Fold:
Amino acid sequence: MPLIQAEKIVDNVSHSQLHHYINTTTQPFGHHSTKMSHFISVLLFLLLATTTTHATIFPAQKPRRSFANQFLIPQNAARAAVRLRPLVWDQKLAHYAQWYANQRRNDCALEHSNGPYGENIFWGSGTGWKPAQAVSAWVEERQWYNYGKNSCAEGQMCGHYTQVVWSNTRRVGCASVVCSGGQGTFMTCNYDPPGNYYGERPY
Structure:
């Protein structure tokens, strides 16, 4: 199980309480051996070399839609649990998220973009992290949110969760990047309209 730590920051642009999430794990991810990599390279070369002009053409896949749903479905499940309308994927927000994720590629720094949108960010060590795992880390903060007091439990974080279930938020776009030098995986989701306004309940 990954060790999870979190720290709250305040986004001065939207005056909303936003947070970043830190995940670390001691479980190593497997790597192919040099011999296996060489074997695969030779095999691919032979397959390409023997391909004829009559090769079967397969229909193009839609990986971006699948990628979007990995972020979207678990967030909408959290919203459905409190009877909120689902978020829709927004390509403009996704482009913004990817632009910012690319800025973090070289350092994997847990820093917010300070842009005009609500924002949740995530870091995990290694390269095996999936979008649904980032969302799960955010949504698990539900246990620390007290709706009656509209606050987090003392010493705990819940702002990632409240952004996910902010009722006025309609659109989301997310991105993921594997950072250079084995620094880990960085993910970010941007929300419009933004949530987590001080003194307001999420729903």
About this structure: Residues 36 and 42 are 10 Å apart (CA to CA). The beta strands are 3-11, 16-24, 88-89, 118-124, 145-146, 151-152, 171-178, 185-192.
